[in-house]
Amino acid sequence: MATISSLFFVPWILLRILLTPIPDTVQEQVDDSIGYKLDGVIVYVDQAGKPPEFYAAGWQDRKKKIPADPKALFKIASISKLYVAVAVAKLVNDKQLSLDKTLAEYLPELAGRIENADKITLRMMVQHRSGIPNYTDYPGFWEKDYSKSIEKSLGLILDTPAEFAPDKKYRYSNTNYLLIGEILDKTLGYSHHQFSKKEILMPLGLNNTYSLLSEVDLEDVMSGYDVSYDGDLKPNDFISPAGSMVATAADVGIFLRALNDGSLLDANEQAIYSSIYAYEHTGLLPGYSSIAKYHKDIDAVVILFVNTSGGYSWNVSEIVYKRIVKILRRNKPDGSEKI
User: For residue 146, what pLDDT is reported?
Assistant: First the structure.
């Protein structure tokens, strides 16, 4: 628990939400969150034994005064990596990929351009243990629209030093998943987006999940805002497999439940997946932040979408998410609560 003296070092907006009593209902918490400089909030809850629940507050489009729609499309950013990891698990199980094959073996043209390409395995890339620098950390990456070109994005880290020796550390790098996308496309002989649609989206009936922003009508997508920018960031595209997908909260929730309960993958695929990646994820893009987790103790999938980035918006989003889960635990049928 924070001491009185330590509270003086907490930004006022975070201090205010931390000191505000947790309300009785999820909707009350969602409504309250708009008072902490979040433009719009969407929450989806799938708790066992109950119909899915949708909550929203704030704006879907601030300029047009369109209220947040809990069924709107949203840029889910790095939550996309879960879908890519599932595709890898399926192809490894089918013997089309090997987790122990190196980057240089998969993409020989990058030998000598990415340090340690002959030692970095597919497993290391999936697990963010490759040491390959993160291209989105490049100064001016977002301002210069590198996000709209895989070639330009990859070019930012070619011929640069590795951050560490392969498999010696963990460091999250979007470059790993950009390269995995290239490996998938080359192995399949066609776009991995098509593979994901056939093997993941269609079997689960995810008709409101798309690989790219270009596949959807922008009017159906929640607007995105940053505290340091007045305009709508919705049209800004990000095409890398590291975070290109667009989906509704419900579709993400259905996917996450299927990933966690074993209905998406067969036993062998599940074992492979469990050995390489996580079962939850967060996502951050300019104008968009998201949290997708399954909580076993209450058998609930909880998805949070916030269309605000910058400032303390991510910190507020994390606090709001934790408070929502606390409400769900408090309201368990048996009346118990697990912290």
Answer: 84
